[in-house]
Design brief:
Blueprint lengths: L3 E2 L7 E5 L8 H12 L4 E2 L12 E5 L4 H13 L3
Antiparallel strand pairs: 1-2, 2-4, 3-4
């Protein structure tokens, strides 16, 4: 995919930068991701006081292998 993944430790969430997919806000991007790819992500901005330096969302990876593989396949096709 064109997501840039951030290193995470001790979490069930993977931070991903989505700037390669456009410049919309994280909430709008998460809505579009569900609508177009069928994959849910969580916007990061509600957890921050100020503006973000990067366009970040987070994916929860506390899922079954089958669910993660299906999501990965959908994300590979997203925005192609």
């Amino acid at each position: 995919t064109r997501f840039t993944l951030r290193e995470v430790h001790g979490s069930y969430f993977q931070l991903a930068e989505y700037s390669a997919y456009g410049s919309e806000g994280d909430r709008a991007f998460c809505h579009r991701l569900v609508k177009e790819a069928g994959v849910a992500a969580i916007p990061v901005s509600p957890f921050c006081e100020g503006p973000l330096e990067a366009r970040l969302i987070r994916f929860c990876f506390a899922k079954s292998e089958a669910t993660l593989e299906a999501a990965a396949e959908r994300l590979r096709s997203f925005g192609a």
